[in-house]
Write a structure and sequence with these properties.
Length: 454
């Protein structure tokens, strides 16, 4: 049984039977069968339906944002923006898939030689709850436009969103089995990956889940794309506009109540501007108004589940026991719901969870360093490599640090890290491998076939 529990109230709002092995088998076979006809459809046909889907998303954004608010606590305004972004990625691939996948002619001694991008079949997506629509759409729009079909195993705490997404594809006019949801727990994932009709897997989630899925996929030689956790460093250099940087850093830390893989997590500040930055940053973090995500005054909702909130608090307590100091927050509020206040920790050292681990909530670890060189060293002193940002008035220097010196998949100068359908997205090191979005993302689940005509 899967339950939707409202994290604001702790009440169960819906329950769903998980699918039996037989039911799962039937859906996978149907998605596979559908692929054989779907792959033969034209780009213009797929594009038309994908645009219907974009319009449908826009017309239902209020309702879908409400569903996210009650199922995982997302502030309604952020939920509306998430649905608009899903519509954007659908439109983007509806318009660009064909040109991204055009044959590439290559000159050789043969009469003709070229690369042709061919779809490979049904792809399994294992997705997290934090952006329950966006994570799925950024996988599904390119995958389906490319001529593959998809089955989704969504996080167990968002079954309502998972079923709603399946309905949206159907209502937009896609054939019944182009996109299907499987209501299953993580223990059933192994059998799905090993099913002969599943050709590859895309997982967005934690690093341990990525390791487990990658090893299963490896055992049956199936490709995976892994979008995993992060502990993004934000570097504040001495010439940065501190007021502006503090605002951007607080936004980057508190969006989605801090539950984002690419949220700003470690703030590495050079000695000369440490106290001034901390003062501005504390002010900005204190501006957050946390409460009911459906209340228009609210800027930060609860965390998605009470156990996740408790886990975050344990990381804070453990860090404090090891010498970290609480600047603001750090206490579980005395109220119903999975709430956690905006929190700043300083005096952070290696060996503390706030230095070594991902803090998946509104907790900022502020690290004081001697200079720019040490800032870069500390930024890279992590197992993760998803995003990073640097704040400086010297754009040339910022660009060099972003391009060459920071070890991460997405590096921003004077802004917080965000995904964009036009740009590749993904990480290195324990943040995973492969890329989503842009022309890179659509080619991940394609056979780059070499054709040579003598
Ligand atoms: P999670 O616990 O790893 O769960 C993600 C998905 O994987 C869920 O569907 C989950 O199913 C499934 N799963 C968990 N363990 C599994 C296993 N051993 N085998 C197969 N499937 C498994 O992560 P989360 O708590 O939902 O999401 C937060 C994490 O995702 C953070 O670490 C965050 O940084 C990362 N994330 C990364 C990106 C990115 O683009 N890089 C984006 C968003 C989030 P159940 O729910 O049934 O357990």
């Amino acid at each position: 049984m899967m339950k939707s529990i409202n994290p604001t109230t702790g009440e169960t709002i819906n329950s769903f039977e998980t699918y039996s092995e037989k039911g799962v088998e039937k859906i996978i076979n149907a998605a596979d069968k559908c692929w054989h006809s779907w792959q033969k459809t034209s780009f213009s046909h797929r594009s038309q339906i994908m645009q219907n889907l974009a319009s449908l998303l826009k017309s239902k954004k209020e309702k879908l944002a409400h569903l996210m608010a009650i199922e995982m606590g997302k502030v309604k305004k952020e939920g509306i923006a998430e649905i608009e972004k899903c519509a954007w990625v659908c439109d983007y691939y509806a318009q660009n898939a064909e040109s991204f996948l055009e044959n590439e002619l290559i000159k050789t001694e043969a009469k003709k030689s070229f690369v042709s991008y061919q779809p490979i079949g049904t792809i399994l997506a294992v997705m997290p709850w934090n952006f329950p629509f966006w994570q799925v759409f950024r996988f599904a729009a390119p995958t389906i436009m490319a001529g593959n079909t998809a089955v989704l195993k969504h996080a167990s705490n968002v079954p309502g969103c998972a079923l709603e997404i399946e309905d949206l594809f159907r209502e937009a006019g896609f054939p019944e089995n182009v996109f299907r949801t499987l209501l299953i727990g993580s223990r059933q994932v192994e059998n799905v990956i090993k099913h002969p009709a599943i050709k590859a897997v895309s997982l967005t989630g934690s690093t341990p889940a990525g390791k487990s899925v990658a090893s299963i996929a490896g055992s049956v030689l199936k490709k995976c794309v892994l979008e995993l956790g992060g502990s993004d460093p934000y570097l504040i250099l001495k010439d940065a506009n501190l007021e502006e940087a503090a605002k951007i850093c607080a936004t980057g830390r508190l969006l989605n109540a801090g539950q984002s893989c690419i949220a700003a997590k470690r703030f590495i500040v050079v000695d000369e501007v440490y106290f001034e930055f901390l003062e501005h940053f504390t002010h900005e973090m204190n501006e957050a108004h946390f409460g009911d995500p459906c209340d228009p005054e609210t800027t930060m909702g609860p965390l998605a589940r009470e156990d996740l909130r408790n886990e975050l608090h344990n990381q804070v307590v453990d860090s404090v026991n090891k010498g970290a100091e609480v600047v603001i927050g750090g206490e579980i509020p005395n109220r119903k719901g999975a709430f956690y206040p905006p929190t700043i920790l300083e005096n952070i050292q290696p060996g503390m969870p706030a230095y070594d681990e991902e803090l998946f909530g509104p907790v900022a670890a502020v690290i004081r360093v001697k200079d720019e060189k040490e800032a870069i060293k500390v930024a890279n002193d992590t197992g993760f490599g998803l995003g990073a940002a640097v704040f400086t008035a010297d754009i040339k220097k910022g660009e060099n640090i972003a391009e060459i010196q920071l070890e991460a998949g997405c590096c921003f100068v004077n802004d917080f890290v965000k995904s964009d359908p036009r740009l590749p997205f993904g990480g290195i090191k324990e943040s995973g491998y492969g890329r989503e979005l842009s022309s890179f993302g659509i080619k991940e689940f394609m056979n780059a076939k070499t054709v040579v005509v003598k």
